[in-house]
Write a structure and sequence with these properties.
Length: 421
């Protein structure tokens, strides 16, 4: 829960109190006061500071998007290496709607939904979201991955009939939030009935959840930890007890007294897994000491380097016998669509992926994910969640626009930076 003014004040007061303590005056009494205050104010229950920042984040949350424009589409179809240019940022306000259908349960948990809505911010963007670019044709690229091989002849004729190709001109708004696709319309309904597609379609008007989290009233060290998501205490995407674990919070806050020697776990429904941050450094923001936790390279490494990740390796061919790093197969949680997530510009991913495309330049500063946590309260004061959405496809003789490709592709469509300001 990024802090609002009152929350900043509290954190400030805590720090103030701490300074007094360190000044050597109030050591035993101060400790009790501080602990008493935190245990009370960090509980997710009406009237607390934590509650106020939990319902709707105290800070404003934006999503900045960079779209990947393909500058040589015709050549790629004939076997050339794709040349990409990122275009952005296009910024949307998100997470501004209060959590909905909140129920305080009798067992010290809270049930709720997180509603989704994105509102374009022209003054924080390089242009209108009607700006058009040449981007991957999502439906055409994904078709061989979701449609049975015996219908690929129909797919090929639908592509031709609708004048579609592997690439298309689309506006930023369409790519992100959805558009009716002429190729899908040319496909018989019994094969695919939903004719709309888009990277985040559907978004506006949907809600994520239900989530059940601990309110911390009985045990403050459990506050905000997720115990159920979609009525289950584990996921069902990875067919493995470890990879299916729902760990930690949603990263908006963590239980108080954050220990920099421990990992901070959090769950993100968008990446369909739990992940963690590791302590990187301590710094001061507006006079408040914060710990920066970053998602490390190891969290996305191949099972070769990080055996824990064995169950995130789902495809021996695509992952080159589980030696590939830095991409996460979301097919099981995206209804079979060949969507793969990575860090922006394939930061920390295997060279063979990066080498198949031109125009990408990963760097840690711009592309890593971090949360800056106030260690006493566990409140997240600042964060940047960064990820890239890619579509996997391979050469196939059955579809003309895919028949001459240079190789298989983990093809980037867009990357995003979600920040709390
Ligand atoms: C929230 O509750 C309302 C009223 O009971 C219901 O109509 C709505 O479907 C619920 N929202 C979600 C996301 O379940
Ligand atoms: C607590 O109560 C809620 C709502 O009845 C339920 O979904 C949840 O499973 C219960 N227990 C725990 C540990 O989450
Ligand atoms: C989502 O809905 C809001 C409120 O109706 C609207 O302002 C916004 O433009 C919509 N966003 C998109 C991407 O359609
Ligand atoms: C951008 O415009 C919105 C209103 O549409 C305003 O609330 C916001 O403060 C502006 N932001 C900047 C950075 O100018
Ligand atoms: C496809 O292009 C051809 C020739 O340019 C045109 O005659 C036809 O109407 C187009 N079909 C569609 C569905 O746009
Ligand atoms: C979940 O958390 C436990 C510690 O509570 C940890 O051992 C495990 O590695 C985590 N699992 C995942 C998938 O992050
Ligand atoms: C991609 O297609 C080629 C043949 O066109 C094949 O040799 C290769 O195994 C395929 N790769 C995957 C991951 O299926
Ligand atoms: C994967 O392992 C199999 C069996 O050991 C081997 O035949 C194949 O060449 C390996 N593929 C790659 C891409 O390393």
């Amino acid at each position: 829960m990024c802090c609002n003014k009152k929350c900043w004040l509290i954190a400030g007061t805590v720090i103030g109190a701490l300074l007094v303590i360190l000044g050597g005056v109030l050591i035993p009494v101060g400790d009790i006061i501080i602990n008493g205050e935190i245990d009370k104010e960090a509980v997710i229950e009406e009237g607390t500071i934590a509650y106020e920042n939990w319902i709707v984040p105290g800070s404003t949350v934006y999503r900045q998007f960079w779209i990947f424009h393909v500058s040589n589409p015709n050549e790629v179809i004939e076997g050339a290496k794709p040349i990409l240019q990122q275009k952005g940022p296009y910024t949307y306000l998100v997470r501004h709607l209060p959590k909905s259908n909140i129920t305080q349960n009798t067992n010290n948990t809270v049930t709720f939904y997180q509603p989704n809505e994105a509102v374009f911010q022209r003054n924080m963007s390089i242009g209108s979201d009607d700006d058009e670019y040449t981007v991957l044709n999502l439906a055409v690229a994904a078709a061989p991955g979701i449609i049975s091989e015996m219908f690929l002849g129909i797919v090929d004729s639908a592509i031709k009939q609708s004048n579609s190709s592997l690439f298309q001109k689309r506006s930023v708004r369409e790519v992100l939030w959805g558009y009716r696709d002429p190729f899908l319309e040319a496909i018989p309904n019994f094969i695919i009935s939903d004719k709309t597609t888009g990277v985040f379609y559907p978004y506006n008007g949907t809600a994520d959840g239900p989530y059940v989290v601990f309110n911390g009233k009985d045990f403050i060290q459990k506050v905000a930890l997720i115990t159920r998501y979609k009525r289950q205490s584990t996921l069902s995407y990875w067919s493995d007890d470890y990879c299916d674990m729902i760990n930690g919070t949603d990263a908006a806050s963590f239980p108080p007294s954050v220990d920099k020697n421990l990992r901070l776990y959090f769950f993100s429904s968008e990446i369909c897994r739990s992940i963690y941050g590791e302590f990187e450094k301590e710094y001061k923001l507006r006079g408040i000491k914060l710990y920066r936790f970053v998602v490390p390279k190891l969290a996305l490494a191949s099972p070769l380097e990080n055996p824990d990740n064995h169950c995130f390796c789902t495809d021996l061919l695509i992952s080159r016998n589980c030696t590939g790093s830095g991409v996460l197969d979301l097919r099981a949680c995206q209804g079979g669509k060949p969507i793969f997530l990575s860090m922006p510009h394939f930061l920390y991913a295997s060279d063979f992926i990066l080498d198949s495309l031109d125009g990408l330049s990963p760097n840690i500063e711009e592309h890593q994910t971090f949360v800056d946590v106030e260690p006493i309260t566990g409140f997240t004061m600042h964060f940047a969640k960064r990820l890239q959405v890619n579509v996997y496809f391979n050469r196939t003789d059955k579809i003309e626009v895919l028949s001459k490709l240079q190789s298989e592709f983990m093809f980037p469509v867009v990357w995003l930076n979600e920040v709390g300001i």
